[in-house]
Amino acid sequence: MSDVATIEEPVEERAEEPVGGPADPGAARETSDGTAGDGVSGLLGASVVKGRIKVADEVVEKVAALAALEIPGVADLGGDFERAFEAVRDRIGVGSKRATQGVRAQIENQQVAVDVTIVIVYGHVVMDVAAEVKVNVARSVSRMLGMRVVEVNVTVDDVRLPGEGRNGRAAEDDEAT
Q1: Residue 11 vs residues 44, 46, 51: alpha-carbon distances, Å
Q2: 28 neighbors 35 (Cβ within 8 angstroms)
Q3: What CA dihedral angle connects 89, 91, 96 and 102, to 10 degrees?
Q4: Whole-angstrom Cα distance, residue 131 to residue 135?
C-alpha cells in the first residue's frame, strides 16, 4: 500500500463572476446550468481545475487517533513499547507525544485500512469499548477524509487500573516527583 492517497477529479465548469462578486451579496444568482447559486463558487473562480489532492498516511492516523480517544473507556493509545518509550521521553522532557501513537493506516486506491492499539480504563466492558472505537474511527475517517474505510482492527493492549497515572505508575509516585 502507498504512503499517500491521490484524488484526481475534474471540477464542474461554472459561469465566472466578476472579481468583486455580485452587486448585492445577499442576492441569489443563476449559474450556467440554470440553478440558483449563492455566489461562493463564482468567487472561487471554479472553472475546470485539474490537479491532485494527496493525503498522507499520517493524516489518516491522526484522525483515527483522535476518534479513538473520543470514546469513553479509552485511557491511552499504543502498545507496551510505545508507552514505555513515551514515559522515558516524558521523564527527561524531550519532545512531545506523537499524535499518531498506537495507530497505523494504509491507503490504497482511496481505500483505508486502520490498525488501532488501545488501553482500556478498568471497569469498562472491553468488547463494547473496542466496538465503539472501531465504529467511530471508521465514521470519522470516512467523513473527514472522504475515503472508504475497508477495515479497522482494534487491539486492546492493556487495562489502566484506578489510581494509575498515564505512564502506568501509581498516582502517589507522580505526586512525589
Answers
A1: 12, 7, 10
A2: no
A3: 60
A4: 6
- C-beta separation of 77 from 102 below 8 A: yes
User: In terms of domains, do 64 and 41 share one?
Assistant: no
Nearest Cα neighbor of 8 from 36, 44, 48 is: 48
Closest C-alpha to 60, from 121, 1, 13: 1
- Quote the pTM value: 0.62
Whose CA is closest to 111, among 1, 24, 32?
1
Average pLDDT of the segment spanning 110-131? 95
Longest Cα separation, the chain: 71
* Distance of alpha carbon 43 from alpha carbon 18, whole angstroms: 8
State the residue range of the domain holding 3.
1-51
In the block, residue with C-alpha cell 446550468: 33
Report the pLDDT averaged over residues 29-36: 48
Strands (E), the chain: 4-7, 29-30, 36-37, 53-56, 74-77, 103-108, 111-121, 148-160
Helix (H) or strand (E) holding 23: none
Say if residue 84 is in the same domain as residue 41: no
State pLDDT tens for residues 38-47: 555 555 555 7
Contact present, 54 and 4 (Cβ < 8 Å): yes
